[in-house]
Amino acid sequence: MVLWAEKEEILGLFKETPLFSGLTIETQKIFANTAVTCSIPKGQVIYMEENHADFFYIIKKGWVKLFRETFDGTEAVIDILSSSHIFGEFSIFDNGIYSSSAQAVEDSILISLPTSILKEQIEKDPKLAFNMFAVMSRYQRQQDKKIEHLTLQTTSQRIGCFLLRLCPQNQKTDIVIQLPYDKILLASRLGMKPESFSRSLNILRDKTGIRISGARVEIDSISQLTDFSCKGCSSSYPCEDI
Amino acid sequence: MVLWAEKEEILGLFKETPLFSGLTIETQKIFANTAVTCSIPKGQVIYMEENHADFFYIIKKGWVKLFRETFDGTEAVIDILSSSHIFGEFSIFDNGIYSSSAQAVEDSILISLPTSILKEQIEKDPKLAFNMFAVMSRYQRQQDKKIEHLTLQTTSQRIGCFLLRLCPQNQKTDIVIQLPYDKILLASRLGMKPESFSRSLNILRDKTGIRISGARVEIDSISQLTDFSCKGCSSSYPCEDI
Asked: What is the ipTM for the molecules in this complex?
């Protein structure tokens, strides 16, 4: 049973989630009535690749890593997601199985929703279908951009690009940001080994004058960072591609 | 005006194209009536990134490269497509602009179709919408896999993986295949510089015993190649992911 207050909170969360944006209140309630809030401790696996996909999830709080494992046991990090992101929803087009594994990398609160309802409603509600197209299209652009970066950017430029995306877009000087998760995870997210990440971070520091202490990053001028990082990319800052 | 014989041929091509598979003959005819066949010589640009997307295309014959250019003038190859592949169709979810450029890399014959008809019919025909979801979902899996490969496979393993995808899946020994396009293009397609490609090809040759002469590749045993290439991947051969 979903409590009234909890349901209101879930409906509030739907507003920030592109998949649910602009749906009628009736359709939103169909989803909210089947939603379950779950607390997932840091490190817990939410589902494994190839598992039967009964649920998809909205992140209310925390960080979730999507990954795959190779035959020689190495982990490929597909994505690291935060609040109001959805995951597991594409399984409805993948024969009902998850195409990657999911794990909480910080203590997280998730809203689970049945994939069966999503599949059913997408066939009934053209607005939901259109939202799904928009979500998939955005994801595609992000993946295309990641491939471009992995192919053409140096590892230092990739770190610079990641930092730029954390910067407030209306501020050009004296910026202080916090790295959202630890450096080992950040290295995997950017497709680097930890030792290569450290080397590349040092190069970035030398070339752009940014200062990093623990998770705190100080950037005197955004143009120092864009001049170095964005020349190996087909988009210009501020970019919406990734 | 589309001639009767040409229309029949286009309807035949639709059967091999997942986006059009299983549509009613009425819907297929709506597309076929607006189709135009065009011959594109090798090297010709079909459209540029950020152009307004009036048409999407089916490749009847030839090879088409999708790419982007970075600010320092380097080219990022997104994909190289062959017969019965579609491109430009995702523009209908990207505010009607192309997200990459397209160029014929061999003399090619294309069928152009208006994006306006696609957009209109997707809203009317749930089967077409479902096909589009399937096409996008397949593309997503391919892009996820490319990211995994770029992150975790060695350059030699990536070339091995590419060759495996050209092998007939029912043949395990004494395989002869042809590289579908030149090695410089192949290097870009796999995200490598030509000199890195040559070095990696030599390593692959040494490790797996394959023989390469011009575009001809001889593989004595498929397991030589899978043992080397697939251990850095989360899928096993034969895989459908890419």
From this structure: 0.85
